[in-house]
């Protein structure tokens, strides 16, 4: 009975032992599988921290190329008159073809003359600008010294004035050269007109082939272009001559007025000729001497001293009168004392007239035209010393 009861227990123990053995065998296998799985799993990649890089700003679109700006305006008096190119002509062997070759040779010689005259003009322009630049540099230096005042007749200013006069004379000498060149260009223009007429009449010659007429048309166009350039050269040359003559005349007057300023050691201004224009009023019928004591003079210069400095004041009042009335004229009257014996009166009259002539020369040196002034003399019991009255009309 006891054996039968212990049998189930043994079976139970055997079963439990088998289960435990199986579990023990299965555990290492699971561990190996886990190890194999961990060996086969890829290692995690290292994380590298980097600084944030700002995104590049989008590139600005390239600026569109600016449109071609217009060329600067050409300076007056700088035109270069270059003749056009003459085309090569293939000989045709006809009579007209030979005439075309002759006309082409004439055109080449004509353009050679034009190039030579253009070169002369450019040379004269360069030299005139150089002399004018030197003159104005000297003139500015003298005016700067006179503005602050200097000694009368300063020898340094006198030397500069002489040099400025020499430079200005070189500008004046270019006027004669320009006139000579204008005569040459006029002859070239006449030859060009004759050549153009000859080219046009060649179309009427018989015995020409089509190539002859084609070449004649090309040659006629080139002669026309040359004629236009020669005409422009002659016109601008004429303008240059007139402009240089006006410039030379005005600056010569300004230089003469500056001589008066250097003699006095102070600045007086430019020439009065630049302010005087128009038709002046006629002189009084009874003469300017009759106006003494009847009208208020523009200026009264009393020569009570051997060296009276009146130039600056005289220039100022006469210049102001011309600014108000550009067609004004001036009557200069020498007034001498009438007191004393005949010899003294004669002496005072001579001295007074000499003083009035000095005033006249001074105004002329300042640029006042001679036809704007009259000179007369009289005596008066109301004056004690020699005086010069200046009246404006």
Can you describe what's shown?
This protein has 393 residues and is α+β, with helices and mostly antiparallel strands. The chain folds into 2 domains: 170 residues, Up-down Bundle (Glutathione S-transferase Yfyf (Class Pi), Chain A, domain 2), CATH 1.20.1050; 120 residues, OmpA-like domain (60s Ribosomal Protein L30, Chain: A), CATH 3.30.1330.60. It is built from 6 helices and 4 strands; from the N terminus they run ααααβαβαββ. The radius of gyration is 53 Å and the shape is elongated.
N/C terminus separation: 180 Å
Helix content: 55-70%
What sequence of helices (H) and strands (E) makes up the elements? HHHHEHEHEE
Count of alpha/pi helices: 6
Q: Count the strands? A: 4
Low-confidence stretches: 1-59
Assigned CATH architecture of the largest domain: Up-down Bundle
CATH class of the largest domain: Mainly Alpha
Task: Give the neighbour order of strands across the main sheet.
Answer: 1-4-2-3
How many domains would you count in the coordinates?
Answer: 2
**What structural class do helix, strand and pairing data support?**
alpha+beta
**Principal-axis shape:** elongated
The CATH topology of the largest domain is: Glutathione S-transferase Yfyf (Class Pi), Chain A, domain 2
> What portion of the residues fall into strands of 2 or more residues?
5-15%
What's the overall average pLDDT, rounded?
81
What Rg is obtained from the alpha carbons, in whole angstroms? 53 Å
What is the subunit arrangement here? single chain
Describe the largest sheet.
Answer: 4 strands, mixed
């Amino acid at each position: 009975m006891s054996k039968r009861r212990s049998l189930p227990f043994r079976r139970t123990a055997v079963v439990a032992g088998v289960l435990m053995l199986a579990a023990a065998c299965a555990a290492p296998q699971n561990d190996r599988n886990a190890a194999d799985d961990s060996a086969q799993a890829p290692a995690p990649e290292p994380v590298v921290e980097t600084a944030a890089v700002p995104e590049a700003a989008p590139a600005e679109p390239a600026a569109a190329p600016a449109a071609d700006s217009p060329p600067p305006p050409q300076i007056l008096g700088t035109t270069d008159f270059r003749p056009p190119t003459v085309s090569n002509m293939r000989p045709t062997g006809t009579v007209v073809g030979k005439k075309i070759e002759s006309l082409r040779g004439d055109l080449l010689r004509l353009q050679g003359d034009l190039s030579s005259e253009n070169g002369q003009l450019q040379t004269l322009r360069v030299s005139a600008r150089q002399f004018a630049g030197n003159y104005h540099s000297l003139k500015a230096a003298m005016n700067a010294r006179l503005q602050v005042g200097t000694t009368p007749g300063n020898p340094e200013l006198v030397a500069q004035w002489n040099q400025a006069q020499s430079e200005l004379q070189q500008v004046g000498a270019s006027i004669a050269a320009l006139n000579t060149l204008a005569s040459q260009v006029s002859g070239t223009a006449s030859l060009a007109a004759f050549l153009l007429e000859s080219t046009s009449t060649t179309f009427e010659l018989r015995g020409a082939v089509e190539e002859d007429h084609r070449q004649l048309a090309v040659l006629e166009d080139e002669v026309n272009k040359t004629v236009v350039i020669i005409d422009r050269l002659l016109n601008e040359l004429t303008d240059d001559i007139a402009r240089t003559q006006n410039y030379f005349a005005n600056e010569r007057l300004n230089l003469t007025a500056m001589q008066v300023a250097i003699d006095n050691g102070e600045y007086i201004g430019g020439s009065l000729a630049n302010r005087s224009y128009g038709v002046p009023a006629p002189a009084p019928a009874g003469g300017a001497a009759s106006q003494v004591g009847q009208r208020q003079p523009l200026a009264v210069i009393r020569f009570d001293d051997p060296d009276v400095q009146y130039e600056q004041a005289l220039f100022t009042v006469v210049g102001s009168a011309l600014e108000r009335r550009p067609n004004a004229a001036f009557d200069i009257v020498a007034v001498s004392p009438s007191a004393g014996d005949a010899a003294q009166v004669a002496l005072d009259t001579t001295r007074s007239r000499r003083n009035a002539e000095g005033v006249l020369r001074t105004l002329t040196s300042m640029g006042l035209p001679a036809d704007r002034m009259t000179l007369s003399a009289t005596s008066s019991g109301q004056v004690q010393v020699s005086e010069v009255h200046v009246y404006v009309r």
